[in-house]
Amino acid sequence: MSSILEVNDVHKRIRGKEIIQDLKFSVEPGEVFGFLGPNGAGKTTTIRMMVGLAPITSGDILIDGYSIQKSYAKAIKQIGAIVENPEMYNHLTAEKNLIHFARMNGKVDQERIDELLELVKLEHVKKKKVRTFSLGMKQRLGIAQALLHRPKLLILDEPTNGLDPEGIRMVRAYLRRLAEEEGLAVLVSSHLLSEMELMCDRFAIIQDGKLISIEDQRVAGGENQPLPYQIDVGPEKLEAAVQVVKEAYPDLKIEEADQRLTIYIEKENVPALLRYVMEAGFDLYEAREDKQTLEDRFLQATSKEESS
Amino acid sequence: MIRLIQNEWMKLFWRISTWVMAAILLVGVIGVLIYSITNQPSAEQLPSEAQWKAQLEQENAEYQQALEESGSSAEFYEQRIAENEYRIQNDIPPQQATGENVWSFMSTNTALLDLLSIFVIIIAATIISSEFKSGTIKLLLVRPPSRIKILFSKYLTVLLYALGMLAFLFGVSFILGALFFGFGESSAELIYTDGEVEQRPQVLALAIDYLTGSVNFVMLATLAFAISAIFRSEAMAIAISVLLYVVGAGVTSTLAMAYDWPKFLLFANTNLNQYFTSGGPPVESMTLGFSVIVLIVYWLIFMGFAVWMFKKREISVTG
């Protein structure tokens, strides 16, 4: 499958200062891709380059194979975007706003407008001026305008910013549905990791304009890799337990940490291990997968950057 | 392109300020109407042919005397004398002897062109910067139409708006003038050039007034538009353009008394009316063709800068 969005070694320099360095990643159809980083990391700058609002210093960004720099019109056709806040024309009605943006992509298709108003549940207020809308309603209208021309790539900058939990849940549900049902590629940025974990298939972490890592949540949950399991047999018996387990599983990596035994083992072998430990006469207080959460990895990744 | 203009028109149309401007213009016309009605002399008060001829002759005697005494402003007196004589010989009564008609009423209303110009400047100055202010510029620019197309659709919308307002002013003046004053005897405008007096029908003089007035505000609107596209600041665009509109002509004509180069200044050329009336251009060597070329060059400079800046601009809306 060819990528919808390809970011190739993008650099961005403003007044001699490197804002973005060597950024490289791609987004596939049907996936929700996150763009995670603390405020000021360069997320919005990158998004602005993707949609042609800001020039790229070097490198290129391809949308469905078209360069945003060289074939702007063809590339931008495939993008629906909200950059920063969902700003609409406050003095126009919701419907007029959509007509406005539809005209910019060619013929106005009233059916499509109605369809989208229904999708984002705004058809009952379509004749109302946007001025009277709540932030959540504006955000939904923003999504509707971004989807008008059936783009292949949806770019949303901080889509849940300022929304209440219910609004956040709705946006998340929309995005997942769009990606799964329509094969849309969705790129969302956020500075909240928990957001990314809930919403995205994969996400890139950036810090100070550099790509730090790309996390694939679909792989992270895979079954056949050894995962760290922590076993608590009580502090006094820890030493003995480590000995016993090491004898039984000589090939596996075993550590002592936090007064617990940590063993890297495939999930399917966990029951046998536990049975063995208990039969060897140890009291088992707790056994759990040690999910080094993304939060840790995120902090790890970003703090590594800071100390270097 | 048509769709883009449709869009701009829709946005303009739904703004309250657009309608407030039209309303103010309407109030202005009504104000002029009330003034004209209350100051209109009744039929008996109008001087008869013998009376106004006698009056003009007396005026000429005074002018002649002033001309001999002062020596300065000779041109002014000579012109008035020549015009008055032409009126007496050809039986063309002066304005005050004919009373008001629809054309003279519309001619008075050309004063409202100043107001209209300021409105057009405001629209020109805000049509781009308001998109930046509201942040909608980002949604506007992440679409297939190129930035140049968007810029020109906005510029054309400003011109359309100006045309619309002009038609509104013209139409309202015509209707009200026709209703209240009728198509009575039309007086003719006299043009004095190099000692010759020519006669021009009032309707033609009026058309020239409106047309040349339009050139003036189109140029200023273009300037305001360019400033707003370059600096994104509507306050600056409005302030500079209105300031220039108010003082530009005065400063230019003052400079033109002493030097020759002010003829290349914008304001020496915006008032094309100077080639059609008795006043003449501020610098003698100027011709209509010269002014038109200067105006075109200014226009190209303004729009060139606007396009160049708008195209390369990095669109960031902070806050």
UniProtKB/TrEMBL annotation, chain A:
Family matches, as SUPFAM superfamilies: P-loop containing nucleoside triphosphate hydrolases (SSF52540)
One MF annotation (Gene Ontology) recorded for this entry: ATP hydrolysis activity
PROSITE patterns per UniProt: ABC_TRANSPORTER_1, ABC_TRANSPORTER_2
Domain called ABC transporter: residue spans: 5-233
Alphabetized UniProt keyword annotations: ATP-binding, Nucleotide-binding, Transport
Family note: Belongs to the ABC transporter superfamily.
PANTHER family the UniProt entry points to: ABC TRANSPORTER, ATP-BINDING PROTEIN
Annotated protein name in UniProt: ABC-2 type transport system ATP-binding protein
High-level lineage: Bacteria, Bacillati, Bacillota, Bacilli, Bacillales
UniProtKB/TrEMBL annotation, chain B:
Pfam families: ABC2_membrane_2
The keyword Membrane is assigned to this record: yes
Protein keywords: Membrane, Transmembrane, Transmembrane helix
GO CC term, one of those recorded: plasma membrane
Keyword Repeat attributed: no
Segments crossing the lipid bilayer: 12-37, 111-134, 155-183, 203-231, 238-259, 288-310
GO molecular function: ABC-type transporter activity
PANTHER family tied to this protein: INTEGRAL MEMBRANE PROTEIN-RELATED, MEMBRANE PROTEIN
The protein's name: ABC-2 type transport system permease protein
Source organism (scientific name): Marinococcus luteus
